Amino acid sequence: QERYTEAISRFKEVLSLNSGDVDALTNLGVIYARMNKLELAAEKYEEAVRISPGNNTILLNLARLHVKQKKFREARLLYENILRAQPNLFSANKELGFIYKAEARLGDAISQFSRAAKLQPQDHEVLFELGQLYFRRGKNNTASKYYLKAISIKEQSKYYVALAHLYENSRQVKDCITAYQKAYQLDNDNYEAVFRLGVLTLNAGEFKRAAQYLKIALNLKSNKGEVYKYFGILLRKQKQYDKSKEALFKAKLLNKYVREIYYQLGLIELDFKNISGAIENFERELKESPSHLLTARKLASLYLENQQGDKAAVLIRRALKIHKTDDELHKLLG
User: Fold this and answer.
1) How far apart are CA 274 and CA 12, in angstroms?
2) What are the b/e assignments for 126-140, b being 16+ CB within 10 Å?
3) What is the pLDDT of residues 21-36, one digit of tens each?
4) I want to staple 278 with a disulfide (CB 3.0 to 4.6 A). Which of 24, 63, 100, 269 is the partner?
5) In this predicted model, what pLDDT tens digit does every residue of 157-211 receive, in sequence order?
6) 94-99 LR contacts (CB < 8 Å, sep 24+)
């Protein structure tokens, strides 16, 4: 802070002798930006631009400042102006890609990052961004190529998490688990990686590994209702019903928006042949999550088994409005 104050005094002194000193104005802008005095920084950069309108170094600084201020339109216009004069300036091409992405102009962002990638093929951040954009467009094969290329240049935990999302989306479970494991190896504080490993191994019936991963997730974020939910599911599958209920209630207590809690409680009641208790829980789940398919199927079956055909028909028809092609619902209706 002291050094900044000293430097500001020095540059102001220069400007008192020559108010048009572009370097002094630019350096003041840089210092104010570092001090997070963004309005003052913008003021100095704009003064410098008025004196030296074709100076791309100043324009680049001003564009980056506008990005900090979330003034994306102003930043975009500056970047486009810079690139008209210097079309092969890598930093401007790359940074304009981020602007287009922030403005949700995905096609323009892909084009811009592609130009940047041609200028610097080894920039892993650009390759990763291209992967992200193609993934958002549903082009998984292209996205995968970019992710893997970025990873081959620099391994980062977040790159493996993105690759895991893609594998999960493509139902490539083994590859997905491997990617999350690599993400966790690179960053032991990566909650998402270890939590998803817990869920995936649980779904694969690997209960011991699932418990280990979920415990680590809980150590990282002890107040996460979603972790307690999956602990509850794990314990139900191991027939530790009291502990399962305890974990499920804890999940709901921590986060009232966690779904599927009453569905799991309903399954526990079914294991105890408590049909009325199961129905009550499944009905509560559908109030919270009207589109939850598994609950709709279970509840419709129970209504039918208990001579509540009218209730079953209403429920099935309502569920079919959302899950139009579900074979089991159609079978139950028949």
Assistant:
1) 81
2) bbbbbbbbbbeeeeb
3) 888 888 888 888 888 8
4) 269
5) 999 999 999 999 999 999 999 999 999 999 999 999 999 999 999 999 999 999 9
6) 94/123, 94/125, 94/126, 95/63, 95/64, 95/67, 97/126, 97/129, 98/67, 98/129, 99/67, 99/72, 99/75
